[in-house]
Design brief:
Blueprint (H helix, E strand, L loop, with lengths): L2 E4 L10 H9 L7 E5 L7 H14 L3 E4 L8 H10 L2 E4 L4 H11 L1 H10 L3 E5 L1 H4 L2 E6 L13 E4 L4 E6 L8 H10 L4 E4 L3 E6 L2 E6 L6 E7 L2 E7 L1
Parallel strand pairs: 1-5, 2-3, 2-4, 4-5, 6-8, 8-9
Antiparallel strand pairs: 1-10, 6-7, 9-12, 10-11, 12-13
């Protein structure tokens, strides 16, 4: 089953609806069981309600949420992940999310979920978490003044580094500076663009006319950018 990483867009405004429809179809089930993991948003109730409305009422899934703030037992966490056909990770603070996942064993369970053929997906923090590294804005959650983008270690199910929100959050220049200082192959997604990784192969979905994806490879002199279709 694929990993589907969405670069950004508002779920509640149905900006990513074409991508969400694609995700649901990947389960090949009439009423998929969709698990929402909103750790990066602090388990925001409004975000959970939005997921229930879009994936539940609109797209016909049976939805549940894994809220680590409620201190579920290890067995309860494992049962929820095992229950799901697709697992959608929401956006927010990636670094805090990864820390909490490791503390509760969610990281290990999600790696096992990929091996067990579940559809894994998400937006922003929920997109870069599947990669070796993510180009993240987590520093802004810890400061009240100036902050810089930073690299956050993900689950390592997809090689390289992912940068979401390339167009909407002015990440292009900081990303270039980061890659010139510490070269690594990267994938950059605008809002409403999604990377689909299946059996080691990468394809791109564009949810609207403005969506785009770029592969960035360090070169002898600078960086090589290639737009992917």
């Amino acid at each position: 089953m694929p990993i589907i990483a969405i670069g950004g867009g508002e779920l509640k405004d149905q900006e990513t609806l074409l991508l969400d429809q694609f995700i649901v179809k990947q389960t090949q089930k009439a009423q998929p069981r969709a698990l929402f993991i909103p750790t990066a948003s602090g388990d925001a109730p409004g975000y959970i309600e939005t997921f229930d409305q879009i994936y539940g009422l609109l797209l016909g899934c049976d939805t549940r949420a894994l809220c680590l703030s409620r201190q579920p037992t290890a067995d309860a966490i494992a049962d929820l992940i095992d229950w799901a056909d697709l697992i959608y990770v929401g956006g927010g603070d990636t670094r805090t999310m990864m820390t909490q996942w490791r503390a509760h064993g969610v990281d290990r369970l999600l790696i096992e979920a990929e091996a067990n053929g579940k559809v894994l997906c998400g937006l922003s923090a929920g997109a870069l978490c599947w990669f070796d590294l993510g180009f993240s804005d987590s520093n802004r959650f810890d400061t009240h003044g100036d902050w810089t983008f930073t690299r956050v270690e993900g689950l390592g199910l997809v090689s390289g580094m992912l940068c979401p929100h390339l167009d909407s959050e002015q990440r292009a220049l900081p990303l270039i500076q980061d890659l010139l200082a510490n070269p690594v192959e990267a994938l950059a997604l605008t809002d409403c663009a999604a990377a689909v990784i299946c059996d080691g192969q990468l394809s791109i979905l564009e949810g609207n006319d403005r969506a785009a994806a770029y592969r960035i490879i360090p070169a002898t002199e600078g960086l090589n950018w290639t737009r992917l279709r």
